Amino acid sequence: MPPTNRTRLTDTVVKSASLPAGKKEAVVWDADVRGFGLRIRERGKSYIIMYRPQGAGRNVNSKRLKIGTPETISSVREARKIARAELGKVASGGDPSADRKEASRRSAGTVAAVLDRYEAHLERRQYVTRKDVLSLLRRRLAPVQHRALDGIKSWELAEMIERLDAQSAGSKGQTFRSRLNAFLNWCAFEARVIEANPLAGYRRARDTRAERVARVGRGRALSDEELAAVWSAASPGEPFGRLVRFLILTGCRRNEGGRLRWEMVDLDNGRIDLPATFTKQARGHTVLVAPALHELLNSCAIDARGPEWVFPALRTGQPMSGWSKIMDRNNRRAQNNTSGKGTGFVAVSGVDFSLHDLRRTFRTGLSRLGVDREIAELALGHAREDLEARYNRDGCEVALRAAFRKWSEHVRSITDSPNSDVFG
What we know:
By secondary structure, this protein is α+β, with helices and mostly antiparallel strands. It has three domains: about 10-100, Double Stranded RNA Binding Domain (2-Layer Sandwich); about 110-220; about 225-415, Orthogonal Bundle (hpI Integrase, Chain A), CATH 1.10.443.10. It contains 19 helices and seven strands. The chain has helices at about 10-15, 75-90, 95-110, 110-125, 130-140, 155-170, 170-190, 210-220, 225-235, 240-250, 255-260, 290-300, 325, 330-335, 345-350, 355-370, 375-380, 385-395, 395-415, and strands spanning about 25-30, 35-40, 45-50, 65-70, 265, 270-275, 285-290. The strands form two sheets. It has a four-stranded antiparallel β-sheet with strand order 1-2-3-4, covered by helices on one side. Strands 5-6-7 form a three-stranded antiparallel β-sheet. Helix 4 runs antiparallel to helix 5, helix 16 packs antiparallel against helix 17 (about 375-380) and helix 17 (about 375-380) packs across helix 19. The longest helix is centred in the middle third of the chain and has 21 residues, at about 170-190. The radius of gyration is 32 Å and the shape is elongated.
């Protein structure tokens, strides 16, 4: 406990107190409140209390707890009042230092704080769609973001998923459950901020026949007439229009196109090399550039705000996001156009489709054009490594170039006459 030689602390004493020569730390203990003092260090002064928790023997070291500084507490009188309150907790069997550590631990364990850690984890791993994943998790978990993660009950998460299922016939709930489950597994097994994943054992109900039919119906390949309408609506004078045409010609995923960098594009050798850290399959993928795609890429303007991006967002110059708002499949903008941002692309094109449907259309189209199944899978980046290795030995690139060229010529034939500059 504090020594018997004590001084009554006043504002004047606090202001004039200084560190004795040769000392790195000194404490001026208050004569009025036992256990309350002013600690002086080279970097500044602070008010502290020193105590031994109730029931602890004399062999247990006393604890010191900082309660503030002369800059944050207006006067010694106010600091003394705070000290009495904290020491009163000790007299009642409490431990202010332990309480503060627990509060700090719980603060660091809030949903929002752990999501920040998860984002840093995905960034270190160069997870391609981390921005989309974190955006979805933060949006859906916003009602509980300030609560401790270990206090969130499994039934609360199940209710969130079920509400989303009811809104979207299962698609939103399924996506959220998948992303949330991966996050909670990381929390339990890597970050160790929860004892167990509260979603462990939670499974969606098995789809009925009607639900399976509806699910298949949501993803489809476009007809030639629909594809021509989408192509026509995709203005080559705007980044999004060029991106849509790129997706039509390559079958790439929307994020692969939206985050495509010029350093990945080699027009001289007619290829686009997507690195392993960039693609969903984590194996890398090569797109062979047919003449139509070459013309399209040549037409892309460089945006000074983001010169590294091939298809930068018109508003920011950075990678595109907010796909559901851009597409607006539910036609909310047209029905209640109060944002001033115009009609969604689905309404503009007159075709009810998703950007991923362009990938399905590309794959279906290759089969319709007689491209070998395994080559078509390679063109999409789906093929197994053993098939890829075999085709590499047998002239895979030649076959792939022929496949991309066939599809390019087909798109040209259905979108306009061969002599018109539809790819410019």
